[in-house]
Design goal:
This is SMP-30/Gluconolactonase/LRE-like region domain-containing protein. It comes from Aspergillus wentii DTO 134E9. This protein is mainly beta. It is about 5% helix and about 50% strand. Strands 1-24-23-22 form a four-stranded antiparallel β-sheet. Strands 2-3-4-5 form a four-stranded antiparallel β-sheet, with no helix packed on it. A four-stranded antiparallel β-sheet has the order 6-7-8-9, with no helix packed on it. The chain starts with 5 loop residues before the first strand and ends with a helix.
Length: about 280
């Protein structure tokens, strides 16, 4: 079944800034870009969709009713993934340059939660999820790939205990929990696959396996899950620009899809609610 997404909104001209940055020099082969959008997050309690611009360290909010864009913060970082912490009511940021950060959307204050593990700097966080008890799972991708399969996946408990649960990932990207929190799915971009990480009851990792494989240049990037258990994967095939996706809308059944290089956001109305968005509405 093929469903065509509709153009919903795009980054306004006043926020487009053709140029280069540390991120574009290191990861986009020096190409001048106007922006590179990522990390969509819909927060029901705020009735706003948030996205990041990795290139220039910016986080925007979008009003779903008017599609009006607002710049929330611009800072010296490379924000990539966003997640909502329902307990602290803050936006948690996976920042490639700075680590795991917490942003208060009201005061705009930014706090560093994690920047290193056992005295060693993180490689470069990519994406994250937050559960209803404030546990944070995040990927530490850096510049890893098939040439250097040493990307990490971490779990940060509410008591600030940081545990590395995977140490051999070839470019770990987005990640999702299954509905009973017994397993984690991780997009391994350079392996062009999605890995399945099952947990023992004590939270330790069982045998990791590959549940889906793809072909061609690029690889899976963003992922999400609906309430029926269907997994959605955004594949970053060159030329498509599709990089990440999230659920939103009053019934959590609108799928927002980010086209990073064009600075556009597409939308699809789905027949059921997104499971993660429902969990985040607490």
């Amino acid at each position: 079944m093929t469903i065509t997404a509709q153009q919903w909104t795009s980054l306004p001209s006043e926020f487009r800034r053709l140029g280069s940055s540390e991120h574009s020099q290191n990861q986009k082969r020096g190409r001048p870009l106007e922006s590179f959008l990522e990390g969509p997050l819909f927060v029901p309690t705020l009735s706003l969709l948030f996205v990041v611009d990795i290139l220039y360290g910016r986080i925007f909010s979008i009003d779903p009713n008017t599609t009006a864009w607002s710049l929330i913060i611009e800072y010296d970082g490379e924000p990539n993934g966003l997640a909502w912490n329902p307990i602290t009511r803050t936006i948690i940021i996976a920042d490639f340059k700075q680590g795991i950060l917490s942003l208060d959307p009201q005061t705009k204050s930014l706090t560093t939660l994690v920047s290193c593990h056992h005295g060693e700097r993180l490689k470069g966080p990519n994406d994250l999820i937050v559960t209803t008890d404030s546990t944070i799972f995040f990927t530490d991708q850096g510049m890893t790939g098939l040439h250097d399969p040493s990307g990490h996946v971490y779990r940060l408990d509410p008591d600030d205990l940081l545990d590395m649960i995977l140490a051999n990932g070839p470019s770990p990207n987005d990640l999702i929990l299954n509905r009973d929190r017994s397993a984690l799915f991780v997009a391994m971009t350079r392996d062009n696959s999605v890995w399945h990480i099952p947990f023992y009851p004590d939270g330790s990792v069982q045998r990791v396996d590959r549940v889906s494989s793809y072909f061609g240049i690029g690889g899976p990037d963003g992922m999400t899950l609906d309430e029926e258990g269907n997994v959605f994967v955004a594949h970053s095939t060159p030329g498509t620009g599709t990089i990440n996706l999230t659920w939103g809308g009053e019934d959590s059944n609108v799928l927002y899809i980010v086209e990073s290089e064009t600075g556009s956001i597409l939308m699809v109305k789905w027949h059921c609610s997104g499971w993660l968005a429902t969990r985040q509405s607490i």
